[in-house]
Predict the structure.
Amino acid sequence: MLRIALAQSNYHVGNLDFNKKIILDKIHQSINQNIDLLVFSELAICGYPPLDLLNYHHFIESCNQALAVIAVECKNISVIIGAPTMNPDINGKNLFNSAVLLQNGEIKAIRNKSLLPTYDIFDEYRWFEQNKSYQCVDVNGVKIALTICEDLWNIDADPLYTNWPMNELVKESPALMVNIAASPFDFNHEDERKNILRKNVSNYHLPLVYVNQVGANTDFVFDGGSLAMNADGSIVKELDYFKEDFLVVEFDETKKEFNKLETVVYPTPSKISKINNALVLGIKDYFGKSGFQKAIVGLSGGIDSAVVLALAANALGSENVHAVLMPSEFSSQHSIDDALSLVEKLKCTHEIISIADIFNRYEMALHDSFKGTSFNVAEENIQSRIRGNILMALSNKFGYILLNTSNKSELAVGYGTLYGDMCGGLSVIGDLYKTEVYQLANYINSNEEIIPFNTIQKAPSAELRPNQKDSDSLPEYDLLDAILFEYVENALGANAIIDKLQNAETVNRIIKMVNANEWKRNQFAPIIRVSSKSFGRGRRIPIVAKYN
Amino acid sequence: MLRIALAQSNYHVGNLDFNKKIILDKIHQSINQNIDLLVFSELAICGYPPLDLLNYHHFIESCNQALAVIAVECKNISVIIGAPTMNPDINGKNLFNSAVLLQNGEIKAIRNKSLLPTYDIFDEYRWFEQNKSYQCVDVNGVKIALTICEDLWNIDADPLYTNWPMNELVKESPALMVNIAASPFDFNHEDERKNILRKNVSNYHLPLVYVNQVGANTDFVFDGGSLAMNADGSIVKELDYFKEDFLVVEFDETKKEFNKLETVVYPTPSKISKINNALVLGIKDYFGKSGFQKAIVGLSGGIDSAVVLALAANALGSENVHAVLMPSEFSSQHSIDDALSLVEKLKCTHEIISIADIFNRYEMALHDSFKGTSFNVAEENIQSRIRGNILMALSNKFGYILLNTSNKSELAVGYGTLYGDMCGGLSVIGDLYKTEVYQLANYINSNEEIIPFNTIQKAPSAELRPNQKDSDSLPEYDLLDAILFEYVENALGANAIIDKLQNAETVNRIIKMVNANEWKRNQFAPIIRVSSKSFGRGRRIPIVAKYN
């Protein structure tokens, strides 16, 4: 019988002392609980993703030092932990993404990642050499096939890689698979992950311990969901979602299965509830890990800023969220009323700063320059940028982080003002299409009316000119979002989208708008990623390119 | 005798019709000149770098169609051209980065890139499968070892890859190496490139035809410098730098060398002259390829905006560059005078818009909010953001692109205002340390005083509070830039830098400032890259990380 503990922790990228403390605490706790094997997630030493910190030699040395300190504590216990390690071969990249086995106070074995995800938000081949040699590890006489995250993922119909690490490792007849991961959340990912893990236990007729990271690092959110799964695909114990967790399973090496007493399994929540949890965690960790407490949000009375304010209040506490209303001559009374009723409901602090007078002074200053031109997007953007300036001034003066309120639909088509409403340190709902923002608003209102019904029901407007409506410039959001989803998530071309959705003229116009606005998105804040294809790091389109 | 033409062209990423026309013109010209083999650069069909356009299936289909149309024209000539092609194997990534040999109106052979640069600004493993099979190609009975860019670069003391394509190809005893490339400029790159190519001809005792791309695509600048080199390392013909070029060489297959009649070789220019040329080309192509003519620049009287204005006037013509002076109550008379004398010298249009009154209105609007606080960085930033708003308003109204004027030193330490002086569609000097900006100003003044001597001689100041100087907040630029170079370009840690430069307290302070400002740089414009390590795409540091 092997007592195995799964440690699902929230690491802070680069903060080796912080991570070391988490790790040592779990080791000491496990020793006290007579654990045989304690498993941490991928790159736990430095947190995932360390990105180009890995290019700093002294950073790697610090990781090595942390690992050495941790190893010393691993007496009477085996520990598997993720760390970057040096490639001993002069040829190839200098680093491996490794799973390190600690035993008897020292490093007993190092196993390296073979399949290096380099797509979407991942860049692992940027730093790591691909492993090409395979050997199981031994823990108290139990032979374990030890792999790292992507190593188990090459089992689709169109394989991304030309090798299969488990095909090699099974040759040694292991009793158990252990996979350490840093597998980021998107709203389909839990299902996808469980399917992949089930395919593995089924293909190789082996049970699995899977330990994932939890917590957010800027745009990446990790949802946890570590688990122990028997070879029949049944989950014996599942760790919680969006929070740290620690569970123990008993592995019967003769039966090659986990003891099924005290099964822990969670029901799968709805898409929108997962998104809500991911965004709240994303905000919380962005602030916590960068050492800030207080958020500022520009509140328009519209649905986007309302949802962001509610999420921020949930993540940081109402007392740490400050709302600013900045009406102009084009603002409607209902916008102000709706914003005020939300602030009252959430018990956030707020202030009202009119931009009308400042806008008037810009118009005077530009009077000669603009002579003979009519009011157009230039004047609309001036107002938006005045609001950006005020929010940033308050942020600079009082140490708030400005939360951005742009949604994915408007980011896609460039319906936003760069340096205006596109300001902010973190984009909260930049990976949610407008239709999903409505769903989230309704979810937030599940128990009571927090976001005013009027905010949800009225027609969206930027209120930058008289009687403006989003629908003046854009198709209805149902159609817009459907087109965007096919173009962004599914990477379909115009013709394929028209085949699916008709509306040729609209499809072509929207695709042209998406393409024309790469330069704006390129200067946008990091976006908390909740879909399989978020703007930002995961989608890299050349700026001066021409294509259709 | 094989008559070989080297076509060094300026492709527009994604603009397949534009690229196809360039390619067909060169093919027809070559047929008229009785060329046996015409060589284009890497990914010439789609331009380099296509980035995630490669993830769009219809984009690959369009590339295939363009290639098919081009192939038909290749009668009585052999053509080698770079294109993305489909991987016929179901396993592995779906694409190869290929060199395609066209003969007799069809695709005769496809050779794929083995070594996929995935570091710094490169992400090739994101899209392409690594080639692992090797075979020379035949052109009129001459056996050619055909490789793609990085395939020749694995010959340093610490090899980045574990395979050497030329080691395989020489087994077939080829007579000639052909390498097609898209090798971006940095100010050391020409020397480095020639060294690498010389090592190859020397190692393999073979002459080489090397064809590189020229032109800029957003942040990437390609300097050309294609060449034919004999096995003794001598350059027989070199194509021009920073411009399109087309040259013919005669290859004697019996002697395995190029005929040395009419040698063309260029003297190596100074570092700063290369940088000047790269920046001018970078501006020119950014505008040309995005379909814009006119630039707007905020002119402060300081050296950064002066240099940007001079470069823009050079790239776009003075008549297409508009300067805006935006004095505040803190602006000195010499700033206005220096700015005006530059505008007069360059014959740009200009206007003066005071920000004092607008700033005053912001102070009034924020009066209650700021009560009890003193004038600090918040008020400084408001002024900078007013200027950003005015420049963007003019840009939106009249269709200018705003050129950003931040330098690398201030970007590094965060000495700039996000959404203020950090505004702009393109960063012109964001990869030049302040000390290099001075060198460039002097270079621009080589023949006559264009940038006023006073601008060069006075102490730098942001002029956002009374009597402000850069040196109030920052060490002298010589020391600052030396520290930054060690940290950014050389990736040294604090201790190693202190060993080299002393000044422990300053070094630690500066590194902390660099680390604390990732979030600002993350929202910055694309930077024309001229060094081996530019901020932006080539340096990816996590935002909420903690490290030192």
Q: What stands out?
A: Chain B touches chain A through 97 residues (CB under 8 Å). Chain B has three domains: 2-264, 273-463, 475-516.
